[in-house]
Design brief:
Elements (H helix, E strand, L loop, with lengths): L6 H27 L10 H34 L5 H41 L3 H9 L14 H30 L5 E6 L35 E6 L3
Antiparallel strand pairs: 1-2
Length: 234
């Protein structure tokens, strides 16, 4: 199978949605904190609301990617599968994975906000400086804070579109093998084979599962690799 046909479209949509949400939530954080900032205003209910908003933004996108890639896989293989089952599996996977993803993002957000507010009092920042510190935290290597600049929204969009598209293809393969367990297919790692391919993924290109890799893409943040499945008989 080819790479995900609509990858760029879904990446743009998810990135734009995350950027919009990030700006809204940054404004909400600053309003709640007040001047001088009162960290007690960012309570359990506040972080619960952040998580709910983020989940509502991400989950439908991941489900749509899953289904789009599942349909592409069916078309590429010229097969028919009960679509209602695929829909159910897409919703279940997106719900379960989004919960895990959002928990990590919220935990990182909470830590970044606490660090930023502590720095406000320690270094006597202005409120403008605090806003800048919250919107672009110093913890640059942590994936996916809710309060994020465009670069983090882009990173999450690329990484999670890759993940959801791989899951959509895998679901179709599961259904095929469920209908006929004698069918043997094996996953093969695929990259774009250009100068942008990283040192992690380049050696995996064209390798079957179990040779140089075991975990499906994405292998790292911003990974755009995918997998093909080759028929290995019955």
């Amino acid at each position: 199978m080819a790479d995900f046909d609509h990858r760029a479209k879904f990446e743009r949509e998810l990135k734009r949605a995350l950027e919009t949400l990030g700006e809204e939530q940054l404004g909400d954080v600053m309003r709640r904190l007040g001047n001088p900032p009162d960290p007690s205003k960012l309570d359990v209910a506040f972080y619960g609301a952040l998580s709910a908003e983020l989940a509502a933004t991400i989950q439908p996108k991941l489900e749509a990617v899953f289904l789009d890639m599942a349909k592409q896989t069916m078309d590429d293989m010229s097969i028919g599968i009960e679509w209602g089952i695929v829909n159910q599996r897409a919703a279940a996977w997106a719900n379960q994975y989004t919960f895990k993803l959002v928990k990590g993002i919220t935990d990182n957000t909470k830590f970044a906000l606490q660090e930023s507010i502590a720095g406000f009092f320690k270094t006597q920042m202005t409120m403008g400086e605090l806003r800048g510190k919250i919107s672009v935290p110093e913890l640059k290597d942590r994936l996916g804070r809710i309060i994020m600049p465009a670069v983090r929204a882009d990173m999450i969009a690329i990484t999670e579109v890759t993940r959801a598209s791989v899951q959509g293809e895998l679901e179709i393969l599961k259904e095929i093998q469920k209908d006929d367990p004698s069918i043997k297919m094996i996953a093969v790692w695929q990259t774009n084979r250009d100068d942008w391919v990283c040192a992690i993924c380049k050696p995996r290109n064209g390798k079957k599962r179990g040779e140089d890799w075991r975990e499906d893409p994405p292998a790292h943040p911003r990974c755009r690799c995918w997998i093909n499945h080759v028929f290995e008989g019955r």
